[in-house]
Amino acid sequence: MARKFPKILQPAEADNEISYNVSMELQHFTGVTLVIGDTVILSDDGVQVIASSDGDYYAVNAYSFLDVDTNEIGGMYGRDDAGQNVVGFRVVDEAANDDDTVLEIASTSTTDAEAHVTIQANRTGESTDTYIYLERSASSEIDIISNAAAGRVRIRPRINLLGESLEICDIYITGSYFVIKYTDGGTVRYKYLDLSGTGATWTHSTSEPS
Prior knowledge:
With 210 residues, this protein is mainly beta. The chain has three domains: 1-103, no CATH class; 105-152, no CATH class; 155-210, no CATH class. It has no helices and 14 strands. Strands 10-11-12-13-14 form a five-stranded antiparallel sheet, with no helix packed on it. The radius of gyration is 26 Å and the shape is elongated. The two termini are 45 Å apart.
C-alpha cells in the first residue's frame, strides 16, 4: 500500500503549463501565512506541517522526499496519537527497487574543531543524563548514559570489542554463563563463569557452554 501523498512534478519548460512562484518580503508582511492544502503552512515562523492523528504510517502528514519517478524515498513524519506525540525520520523504498535504505545523522567539522552528535531524552525538572553522545576529536569518545542513578543500557545479543590492532573478542551471556569468546591464532577459545550459585571459578573450553 503506497502512502497517499500528492506527487506533482514541476512542468518542463517545453510544456504548455503554468507554474507559480510565491514570494513574501517578511519585513513588509509580518504575520502573513500561506496555506498549502490542508496540512502545510508557510509563514515567518517557518514551515509548519499539521500532524496526523490517524496513527497509521501511510496516513501521516509529512515532509517527504521523492525520486525522479515520484516514488517516495523518505521524509520526516508527525503524528499526534492519543497520549503521545511522535516525530519520525524514515527512509523507504516505495518503488520496491531493492535499493538499500540509509538514514544518516552526521556532524562534520574541520580538523581544528570537534564534531559532536547527541541524541538525548529529557523530562522537565530532571537532570539530562540519558543520552548517546559521539565526539570526533583528537581523543574521540562515545558515551551511552542512561540515568546514572537507576537507569540501564541494554545491548543484545553480545558486545563485540575491537582492539587497537584489530584484536576481537565477544562478551555475552548464554543461559547462566558469562562468556568471553576470543580467537587465539585461529583457535576459538571460550572463557566463562557460571553466574548461578556461589561458584567463582572461570572455565576454558574450545566450545561454547550450554
